[in-house]
Amino acid sequence: MHLVAARDERVDDVRADEAGASGYDRPHAPYRTASVFLSLEGVDGSGKTTQAGLLAEALRADGREVVATREPGGTRLGEEVRELLLEGVEMSAWAETTLFAAARAELAERVIAPALAAGNDVVCDRYIDSSLAYQGIARGLGLERVLELNLTVTNGLLPDRTFLVLVDPGVAFERTKRSDRIELEGEAFHRAVDEAYRSLAEMFPERITTVDGNRPAEEVAEEIRGRLRELS
């Protein structure tokens, strides 16, 4: 399977994740000049939301226009679906998968694609790979089936680069607040998700870059910024 970013499909922050991230003002080489779509992935408790915020701040400090958003969410519909998915009743695996896909379709069409077309960068906290890991592999629905659904609803829009923050799944599980429906899943499920993510990184090495999250946040962020400059 060969899966790369669809850059032909190409809003200030729209319901973006809030991140109390510090700016980045150390001298560094410039990033690429074309707009870029980046996603951050990882198990719950991996620190990927922190890294998404730090990356968006670093790009802005470099003078770039950045739209930072999250999944599920980022639009009015997406935020309502988020509440249903995380705080709502129990549901079947396919119901869960299609709700994530519905929120993603809205985000891709109303936020991500317009932002890229306007020449802005996009930093997204979770995207298609979350569904591949959580539902396609860990819940056993099938990678190909979940991928096909999501490529259809997003019109094939994929990140230029996905940074996968890897930490020990036991440590990540202990970090979670276990305050929503998915976080309340047992540790065995979270370990299955971790294994799923690692498999995805092996399947799509041209797009997914792994980073060791078992370090201070700024150290991880520095590596991500360095990896991004390699794309220039």
Your description of this structure?
- The protein has helices at residues 48-61, 76-87, 93-117, 128-138, 143-153, 169-175, 187-203, 217-229, and strands at 37-41, 66-70, 121-125, 161-166, 208-212.
- The chain is an alpha/beta fold.
- A five-stranded parallel sheet has the order 2-3-1-4-5, with helices on both faces.
- The protein has a single domain (37-229), classed as P-loop containing nucleotide triphosphate hydrolases (Rossmann fold), CATH 3.40.50.
- Helix 4 packs antiparallel against helix 5.
Give a short synopsis of this structure.
The protein has 232 residues and is of the alpha/beta class.
Secondary structure blueprint with pairings:
Blueprint: E1 37-41, H1 48-61, E2 66-70, H2 76-87, H3 93-117, E3 121-125, H4 128-138, H5 143-153, E4 161-166, H6 169-175, H7 187-203, E5 208-212, H8 217-229
Parallel strand pairs: 1-3, 1-4, 2-3, 4-5
Helix pairs in contact: 1-8, 2-3, 3-5, 4-5, 4-7
Level-2 CATH architecture: 3-Layer(aba) Sandwich
Structural class: alpha/beta
Alpha carbon gyration radius = 16 Å
Strand content: 5-15%
| Count of distinct strands | 5
The CATH superfamily name is P-loop containing nucleotide triphosphate hydrolases
Shape: globular
Unreliable runs: 8-29
CATH topology: Rossmann fold
* Strand order, largest beta sheet: 2-3-1-4-5
Q: Give the biggest sheet.
A: 5 strands, parallel
Q: CATH class, anyone?
A: Alpha Beta
* SSE topology string: EHEHHEHHEHHEH
**So how many helices?**
8
Report the helical percentage: 40-55%
Mean pLDDT: 87
Instruction: Give the distance, in angstroms, between the N- and C-terminal Cα atoms.
Output: 26 Å
Number of domains: 1
